[in-house]
User: Fold these one by one.
Assistant:
Number 1:
Amino acid sequence: MKEIRDKLCELASTYEEQLLLYRRIGEVGSGEQDLIRENRLERLLQVLKDKEILLKQAGEFEQRIKLLQKQLADHFDLAIFSLPQLKLVAPAYYQEEIEALEATVAKLLPVLEILEEQERSNEASLNQYLEASQGPKTKKTQIRLAGRAYGKK
């Protein structure tokens, strides 16, 4: 019983850490459009590198989350991890931990939606810049590097 309670708490805690990291990613990425508009491509590249490091850390949290979810799904005999399903099958003495987990996930979802919108907007700004840019060769190289950071060829 304590082991499962600890896993539920660890999962909530890992989601909290991931939430803080995603907020930090949002902060780092919030100035990208200004950097693009101001033609500060070297600074933009540094911001993108910083963001890449943070995203790698987020991926590490995601690996830990998947492991904990699998362990909990196996314990409660769920085909896949699902909070609604977990609430249905877990005994009442786990409900406090499950509610805490649910609250954390509820805080995480809007942050992820904001990040997704921020990325779409930043990518659109960069694409507009790339289309309008007719700068010197060295600037084109920087622009191409920035474009690659967003997954453009």
Note: The domain at 2-149 is CATH 1.20.58 (Methane Monooxygenase Hydroxylase; Chain G, domain 1).
Number 2:
Amino acid sequence: MTRTFLRDIPKIAAGSASLLAAAYVGLSPRVAGALYANMLFHPNRYPEGDYDCGEIAGIKAEDVFFAGADGKMLHGWHLSVPGSTKTLLFSHGNTGNLTGRPHLLAVLLKCGASVFIYDYRGYGRSDGTPTVQGICDDGRAAFDHLEKERRLKASSIVLYGESLGAAVSCQVSATRNCAGMILQSGFSSLRQIGIEMLPLMKIYPSALFPRPGLDSAQVLEKNTRPLLIIHGEKDGVVPFSHARELYQRAQKPKSFMPLPAAAHNDICFVAADQFIDSVKTFLMALP
């Protein structure tokens, strides 16, 4: 029996290695997408939220429904400022839905631009279930809606991304022309923020993370459109170091507005004036 056991050791070892390899790959962010999606996406579905806000900062919130790339019906609000020459395409963060951002919308409207904010699939009144690829497709569908259905020129559309939405805006910019891009509280890449939140993720290479990898820093290395980065220095969700990396790796023209008193979700409360001034200055400098 001992000799038989010794002969079987290589087979046992090979079998164990195969099981470990299968477990390693099977638990990776790319393969076990549903597991990690619960960590990444925290949507509030309709009827959660105030959908009867009427006006924000004196501007009527118009309900808009439009089709995503795969036929999913998506919902947004169009807030049209009379006389504005630019429209901010607002891709929001990973929690709640568009109804949870009235204060930030009010601050943006004070900058003089119109705003189109939409919900990703699975958020608010939008159909479907959120995925990394899906929300990027939704961002492109929102851009196409503004250009084709609203008859807005691409040169009048400014991509505005908040947190996770900053990564979505970067992905949109890679395939759509736009006037410029404003990234608020964004992370450098999904892998980097994932490792900081769950250090065990370091064992997985970029190839085993979801596609697209939401590597905003890599996108900005090739982007030559005007860029404004805004980030609170007290941000405990997406560390300020991400903003520094995004700015350092971005092409010109670029500008950086650090907000010393702000964290992740309180920019429009603790640094509204500084925020408005920086966005206004950026918008006025666009062609």
Note: The longest strand covers residues 73-79.
Number 3:
Amino acid sequence: MEADWSLALGVLIFIIAIIAAIIYYLRYKKWFIISYVASFSVLIFSIFYTWDVLSLEGLGVILLLGASAVIMIVLGKHFSGISFEEDKVHTSLKEKEKEKKVK
């Protein structure tokens, strides 16, 4: 049966990455790292799975890695260009006090 090793490796990478992200979250209280690690480990899993299912060798592996890198670069550029307006309703008390002092 194909894709046995890639499935096991992908699940192992995902579990290790999520545990590391949860430890990071508990230490620094930053939620975004969990989503970054989860998406990155899913990317690695999908690359390994595609590699195994299509029985890629040599140049095929390099092309697969290159294509996934290009896709991630393009998506990163696209999403980094999106600007979000500041939400005045959900500002912290410290920020509200700072705004009062400035005015």
Note: The mean pLDDT is 76.
